[in-house]
Amino acid sequence: MHLEYTIIEGDFVNAGSASSSIKKTLKQLSVNPSIVKRVVVALYEAEVNAIAHAYGGKVTADIDAGKILLRVIDKGPGIPDIDWAMQEGNSTASPEVRDMGFGAGMGLPNIKKNVDRLNVQSTVGVGTTVEMEVNLA
Amino acid sequence: MKLSEIAKLLNARVVCGQERLNEEQDIVFASDLMSEVLTLDDNFPIIVTGLCTMQTIRTCEMGNLDIVVFVRKKKPTPEMIELAEDNNMVLLECDYSMFKACGILWEAGLKSIY
Ligand SMILES: Nc1ncnc2c1ncn2[C@@H]1O[C@H](COP(=O)(O)OP(=O)(O)O)[C@@H](O)[C@H]1O
Ligand SMILES: [Mg+2]
Description:
The complex is a heterodimer.
Chain A: E1 2-7, H1 17-28, H2 33-52, E2 57-63, E3 67-75, H3 82-86, H4 95-99, H5 107-114, E4 117-123, E5 127-135
Antiparallel strand pairs in A: 1-2, 2-3, 3-5, 4-5
Helix pairs in contact in A: 1-2, 2-5
Chain B: H1 3-9, E1 13-16, E2 27-30, H2 34-37, E3 46-49, H3 54-63, E4 67-70, H4 78-86, E5 90-93, H5 98-107, E6 111-112
Parallel strand pairs in B: 2-3, 2-6, 3-4, 4-5
Antiparallel strand pairs in B: 1-5
Helix pairs in contact in B: 3-4
């Protein structure tokens, strides 16, 4: 199954709508609830990042019997130092993002904790792709 | 403790989820930081928060957290209430500060995760 969602630039109110839809899909597929939670928590933090730190983008999801592969692809400034960004507490978030309950530098570390495989690729001035895979069984 | 008793202790208004007030919950987590709420693994506490945005409801949806107390006189918008109802959540509105609300719940014997 292949699914795609658009993440609209600056649209904080709808941040998480892809995660919400994928949660419903995985529930319908009777995936274990604690695995569903890990998938959608990671995807939600990545979705928020594409709005908070970039200019929107898209989410793709590929689901088969054994795993889900998620890609959050944004057009944005990119991440100059991925190792720095992966460390808990490191953040360049704006006050606006912090007012929304994010921006403490906990997103990427929590994504890493929740997924089985994580690959962050970024080109400064072009954008960032966060690829996450979770085993479903 | 029954959710109806918790609402009474906090002098809170029930925004939605009235039909679930007979349920019991004894664990509470308080935070305004949604990234922190999203680290809660397989715990499903009552969330006490002063952050009242669509992101509060989304965070709870992703984390399977379905009981929220808004403190500091925060009022959820109709859009937030609609999403909360879709997810069968209980929302309470309380006029107390975070400290006072948590103090009352602690004194009543509710527990923290850590
Ligand atoms: N999609 C992205 N585009 C550009 N920068 C990003 C992106 N995602 C994360 N970052 C950078 O990595 C930092 C850490 O991200 P994260 O751990 O999610 O924490 P937070 O979002 O709270 O700042 C961000 O502050 C930002 O500098
Ligand atoms: Mg983040």
